[in-house]
Amino acid sequence: MALFGGIDIGSRSIELVVRDPHQVISRKKTATTFDPQAQIRRLSQGLVFEKLVATGYGRALVEKAGICPDIETITEIKAYGLGAHDLFPLAQTVLDIGGQDTKAIALMGSKVAKFEMNDRCAAGTGKFLEHLATVFQIPLEEFGHYALEGSQRLEINAMCTVFAETEAVSLMARGTNPHDIALGLHSSIVKRTLTMLTRVGANQPLLFAGGVANNPCVIQLLTEALGSAPLIPEEPEMVGAHGAALHAIR
Predict the structure, then answer these.
(1) CA dist., res. 67 & res. 209, Å (int)
(2) What is the sign of the dihedral through the CA atoms of 117, 155, 144 and 11?
(3) Are 129 and 167 in a shared domain?
(4) Domain membership flag for residue 86
(5) Cα separation of 76 and 94, whole Å?
(6) Rounded distance between C-alpha atoms, residue 111 and residue 102, angstroms
(7) pTM to 2 decimals?
């Protein structure tokens, strides 16, 4: 049986989607670490691909891993367009908040009409939330639930991760409810994201992808801002790899 693969090498994690021409066979995920090539080989161990398509910021590393003779690379934007359209054919916009970048993509079917990307600063990304969760001494997986216990959305003016931490610590020192501070930090991310969506002329339905799509507070704030709930895949961090696997078949 011919196997086709799509692999997305991000700054924080690597996702692999394995499929035949008709269906997805498996999905795998691992941390990128400081040796992504070793992680790529580990994920693909025992698999023989007819074609493998790589995307993500580390896509050039796949060719050096020696796991498939026929390897192609495509941009994250193209991969997300393909993956989003296949998972939710009615989706007109994709919002991906990943580990160290944010993407807003307007779609025309599976093709990209316009996009905005923040990849120069951790502001508004998963890394922003991860760093601030450590300030609150809360596991990242629980940070969204913690923020939802806040009752007042404080205005957090700084979007730089370092300055936002300073502002949060200063508010804590003044006795401000920490749940409110956490809610304010989540709200600042959504505000930044909405600005990007406005610039691409985002229409609904909107598909929310990336690791931050697992954060219940961001989902709730985004739903309130959009007026309707975003579409969220079962494994939102797999959308890029899913699109890359589709491209491998085509």
Answers:
(1) 27
(2) positive
(3) yes
(4) no
(5) 12
(6) 19
(7) 0.92
Same-domain check for residues 228 and 153 = yes
Distance CA 179, CA 140 (A): 14
Indicate if 125 and 73 belong to the same structural domain.
no
State the CATH number of the domain containing residue 103.
3.30.420.40
Task: Tell me how far apart the alpha carbons of residues 221 and 95 are, in angstroms, rounded to a whole number.
Answer: 14
- pLDDT tens for residues 229-240? 999 999 999 999
Q: What is the pLDDT of residue 119?
A: 59
Helix (H) or strand (E) holding 27: strand 24-31
Same domain, yes or no, for 165 and 219?
Answer: yes
- Identify whether 84 is part of a domain: no
Which residue bears the tokens 């339905």? 205
Peptide bond before 36: cis, by omega within 30 degrees of 0? no
pLDDT of 121: 64
Which domain does 227 fall in, by range? 91-232
pLDDT tens figures, 81-130: 999 999 999 999 999 998 888 999 999 999 999 999 985 666 667 888 89
